[in-house]
Amino acid sequence: MQAIFAVTVPFFALVLCGYLAARSRALPESAIPGLNLFVLFFALPCMLFRFGASTPLARLMAPALIGLYGVCALGMVGFTVAVTRRRRPGGPGVDLKNAAFSALVAAFPNSGFMGVPLLVALLGERAAGPVIATLLVDLFVTSSLCIALAQLHAHGGGDAQADLPTAALRAVRGTLANPLPWAIGLGSVFSLAGWTLPDALGQIIKMLADAATPVALFTIGAVLWRAGQHAHSRTPPSQYVPVALFKLVLHPLLIAGAGLAAQAVGAPLSKFELSVLVLTAALPSASNVSLLAERYGADNGRVARIIMTSTVLAFASFSVLAWALGIQATP
């Protein structure tokens, strides 16, 4: 357990540093979008490119792994939407737009900004392939589906059957504007072709990639503080704590159960791959969902509180789960 904490404590401490820097105004609020842009468009794509280029394509695109994770993601989305839309005693249920964003934070772990570097630090570089595969599923399937559902609400309900394909296509186009899948895809091309970058360009990519982890973690904390400042509502704990627990408890349990069942029927899914999937699901909610909620006019106060709660609780829950899975981290 001590070896696991030696890895997880610095990661979560950097998130806390970013939060405190923003809260104390040592980091001006106006600087936070710039930090986020640097991570999203420069540092993180370089890191993912390097991992993609060094990971065999078969490990990155394992059908059993992608299928299992994708089915569980859809299950989490459906379950969370159904639960959050249900009417509660003394008040109405959540509308479709906010239920969709609740589902997104319940099913989309912070695998890009936090998951890839954290799991590589815990398990070694062979963990990068499965984590990156889950990131692609979440970028193209989970987020596109949830944003499409939110857009259905924005169009007044209408004919859901007719509007869903259009909304989903619009959401996928938004995903294609994200540089992360392109960086992964380009890295995979280099891996498949056996290409290498010229020395000078390779050094630039390495320097940006090395900056990804600390700056991304620091940015998570700053983004969470900013999201709280721009929250449009005060949400009671009963409306956000359960969704955070769906993310940290239900999601990894669902993947563990489905993975064991898949292994029992002979699916080509190794114990190591399943451990990576379970730990990925146990990560806190993706911090940038709060920015999406703000952009689409959802209740970003509720979304921000879910993300904040999952991030705070994940330090203990993730570390305990890694210990329970028998992870032997090397400090």
From the N-terminal CA to the C-terminal CA, the straight-line distance is 11 Å
CATH architecture label: Up-down Bundle
Q: Could you say which overall geometry the principal axes of the C-alpha atoms support? A: globular
Mean of pLDDT: 91
Order of helices and strands: HHHHHHHHHHHHHH
Count all strands and give the number. 0
> What is the count of DSSP helices, taking H or I runs of 4+ residues?
14
Helix content: over 70%
Number of domains: 1
The fraction of residues in strands falls at under 5%
- The Rg value, from CA coordinates, equals 19 Å
**Backbone structural class:** mainly alpha
Mind describing the biggest β-sheet?
Answer: none
Q: So what's the CATH class?
A: Mainly Alpha
Name the poorly predicted regions. Answer: 158-162
CATH topology: Na+/H+ antiporter like fold
Can you lay out the helices and strands and say which pair or pack?
Elements: H1 2-23, H2 32-54, H3 57-60, H4 63-85, H5 96-107, H6 111-123, H7 128-154, H8 160-176, H9 179-193, H10 199-229, H11 241-264, H12 271-281, H13 289-295, H14 300-324
Helix pairs in contact: 1-6, 1-10, 1-14, 2-9, 2-10, 4-5, 4-7, 4-11, 5-7, 5-11, 5-14, 6-7, 7-8, 11-12, 11-14, 13-14
What this model shows, in words?
This protein has 331 residues and is mainly α. It has a single domain (2-324), classed as Up-down Bundle (Na+/H+ antiporter like fold). It has 14 helices and no strands. Helix 5 (96-107) packs across helix 11 and helix 6 (111-123) runs antiparallel to helix 7. The longest helix has 31 residues, at 199-229.
